[in-house]
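A favour, since you know our structure tokens better than I do. Could you add the entry underneath, on a fresh line?
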Amino acid sequence: MSPVKCAVCVVVVALLWTGILAAEDVQVSCRLQDSCVLPCTFEPGEGETIYWTQQLSVDIDVHSFYNDRDQLDNQDQRYQGRTSLYKDQISGGNASLQLTAVTFQDQGRYKCYIDTILGPTESFIQLEVQVPVGKIDIQQVGNTTTCSSKGIYPQPVLTWSTDPPHNLTKQKPTIQQDQELFSISSSLVTSLNVNKTAFSCTVTAGKSRRTATLSQQATVSEVNTDVSIPCRGSTSDLTGFRLTWSFNHRETILMHNFTETPSKVQIQEPWRQLVQNMSESGSLELQASSLQREGIYTCELSDAKQTHISNTFLKFETKQVTGEPGYLVPVIITVIVLALASLVIFIIMTKCKGKPSGGAGESTRGVGVPLSHVGNGNRRDQRLSTEENSPY
């Protein structure tokens, strides 16, 4: 081996020995106020000495262990009572540190230094403290859809999408920070048909990501008939979801937690007389009743990563009695004919009441009338009458 190659090998070995060329930092994410484990392993060997420090401008003593016990005299006060090792696993090569009640000040770079009879080793861990994206509020008023979320760390990002896809004029999100925690909101103004478009808002913060989808429709039902209102989500399998039906965004109708076994529908008291059932797909079934209420029925379906909200505006109408023209025409004609016939009969009966009776006419035959007052026709009638009275 040439002198140059030998020198390079010596330098590399020295760097590896001192930890300068250590592997990339291990990335660890912990939730605020939760417990967290910073991993560290080594080749088992006797005489273990373990030092955990936080890498700041001046290293801070987090936890020390040697002579088979914890050595915490120099521990920084920020970590007092919050650190521990898995002592029963140290002999097997596990020097991981458990940190409880994680704070924002805990985030940063940590060094795990271990020395045994086999020599020293060290590794580095990058701790990120997170407050995951929780509830996303998404609502629609007219042609404006608004999405917001709060209590998030680190700084979040908000994006919009639609189904079916459309080109959107996106408003720059508004971000605010209060006591380390972030809030974010954005509004979307569009001329799209809101009853045919689903709007999705996604908020991302570090490794935390959550999506809320809003869709709405209008439906008309007849008064005093059963009604089925669908819960529109992107999944047909509701396992692991929580479902809530509400009325006019204020009054809870029912709740169903599909994460529980067995799952049970909890119907609120005012609605027990009206709710008939809830289908396996989450549809709300209302029975025919005089208590039926018009308004906005909201289905909220959510799990750890997504929320689907569907609004249905329910309106009731009284059924109108209608018929085909071919059926109405003969009915109308019959009514008109009967009315006309009744009118004709009434007129005839009225005229008959005003005429003299037949008996009064016959009583005038025996009355003598001078011939000078009778016309030619009357004379003929008189002659015929004389002939009828003749015996021949």
Q: What stands out?
A: The chain has three domains: 3-130, 131-210, 223-321.
